[in-house]
Every structure is written in C-alpha cells, then in structure tokens.
C-alpha cells in the first residue's frame, strides 16, 4: 500500500541573501515524468549552500536549499516507473543535476551533464532537499544500502560523489595506492 502523500510540506527556505533561513509550509513538489518523490530522511548543507545563502550564485528566492538529500521513494513519474529500476519504499539519494535534455553534447558525455543548459540543479536554481519531500531525477539517483544511516549517506551525494568521480577518472586497479593532497573536506 502506497504511503499517504500530503498536498503541502514543511521546508526550510532561503527567502533572501544573508537572512536567517525560514521554516515554511509550501506546496508539495510536482512529480514529473522521470522524477522520484522522496520523503527526506536527511539532507546536507555544504559550502555551495553557504555560497547560495551569501548570494554568490544569484539563486532566485525563496528557494529550498540542499543538493545532498537522501530518503525513501514514496511516488514516481510514469517514465521512472516504466523503466522498472525503482520501487516505492526504496532508500535513495540523488545528485543535484536534474532534468537534463539527454541530447546535447554535455549530456552525451555523462561526465559533463552539469553543463546541460536544460537541466536544473537542486538547491541552486530549483528547490532542493531541506524539506519533508523532494524531487530527484530517476537517472541521477542512487540506491542506498539499508545499513548506511541517512545522516551518513547525505554528504555522499555531493562531497562523496565529487571525490569518487575523481578516483573513477584515474581508472586504477583496486590494489592501487592514491595520495590526496589538498585542504578541506574533499582533499584533507
């Protein structure tokens, strides 16, 4: 039996640059063709979110921040359902890129989907995960193991994916040693 889904939800919104975030009642996000509606279990707030708060990205406000959301699928669009990869009740996280065109040069090279001009970006130019529910793109979602708590999984949707992407590009065999030199959460 599908869970009861409300028409509105509570969400933490940025309503103006450098202003305190506000807890507001907002409409539930609409589920598009290839979307997953996720009941949020945890959502991270990273340096990029801080830059949105400062006004560096010139995001339109109000906006629900966080591009590090994880939770449980409660509904999905017809294209996502037809693909058969996802099921109601699965634990997932999603990356910030959503709704790419899948036809431009950036989309054809998966490593460059962030440059798709049709895409939106959770927490930057579209609502993100700091609400009771959020929309994730079925093509950019990842299944989470049951043994990984949501609080530990959320940062992996940004910092973890960024670091892992760099390691994948190296194409090293599993027994290789890697030295990471840098400062901060991604290189420290």
Protein model, in words:
InterPro entries: ADH-like_N, GroES-like_sf. This protein is α+β, with helices and mostly antiparallel strands. The protein has one domain (8-157): Medium-chain alcohol dehydrogenases, catalytic domain (Quinone Oxidoreductase, Chain A, domain 1, Alpha-Beta Complex), CATH 3.90.180. The protein is 18% helix and 27% strand. It has helices spanning 47-54, 78-83, 105-108, 150-153, 159-170; strands at residues 8-14, 22-27, 35-44, 63-64, 68-76, 91-94, 97-98, 120-121, 133-137, 141-143. A hairpin with a 7-residue loop joins strand 1 and strand 2 (22-27). It is globular and about 50 Å long.
Shape: globular
Count of runs of 4 or more consecutive helical residues: 5
Total beta strand runs: 10
Question: What radius of gyration results from the CA coordinates?
Answer: 17 Å
Largest sheet: 5 strands, antiparallel
| Poorly predicted residue ranges | none
Amino-to-carboxy terminus distance:
45 Å
Residue share in helix: 10-25%
| Strand order in the sheet with the most strands | 9-3-5-6-10
Total count of domains:
1
- CATH architecture designation: Alpha-Beta Complex
Q: DSSP strand (E) fraction?
A: 25-35%
CATH class descriptor: Alpha Beta
Q: What is shown here, in short?
A:
This protein is α+β, with helices and mostly antiparallel strands. Helices cover 18% and strands 27% of the residues.
Q: How is the topology of this model organized?
A:
Layout: E1 8-14, E2 22-27, E3 35-44, H1 47-54, E4 63-64, E5 68-76, H2 78-83, E6 91-94, E7 97-98, H3 105-108, E8 120-121, E9 133-137, E10 141-143, H4 150-153, H5 159-170
Antiparallel strand pairs: 1-2, 1-4, 3-5, 3-9, 5-6, 6-10, 7-8
């Amino acid at each position: 039996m599908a869970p009861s889904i409300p028409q509105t939800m509570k969400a933490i919104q940025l309503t103006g640059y450098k202003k305190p975030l506000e807890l507001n009642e907002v409409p539930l996000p609409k589920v598009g063709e290839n979307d997953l509606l996720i009941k949020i279990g945890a959502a991270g707030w990273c340096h990029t979110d801080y830059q949105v708060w400062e006004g560096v990205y010139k995001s339109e406000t109000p906006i629900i921040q966080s591009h590090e959301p994880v939770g449980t699928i409660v509904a999905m669009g017809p294209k996502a359902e037809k693909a058969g990869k996802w099921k109601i009740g699965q634990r997932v996280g999603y990356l910030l890129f959503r709704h790419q065109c899948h036809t431009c040069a950036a989309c054809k090279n998966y490593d460059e989907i962030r440059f798709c001009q049709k895409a939106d970006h959770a927490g930057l130019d579209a609502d993100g995960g700091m609400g009771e529910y959020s929309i994730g793109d079925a093509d950019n979602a990842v299944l989470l193991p049951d043994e990984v708590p949501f609080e530990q999984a959320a940062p992996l949707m940004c910092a973890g994916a960024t670091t892992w992407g760099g390691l994948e590009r190296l194409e090293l065999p599993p027994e290789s040693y890697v030295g990471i030199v840098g400062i901060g959460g991604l290189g420290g």
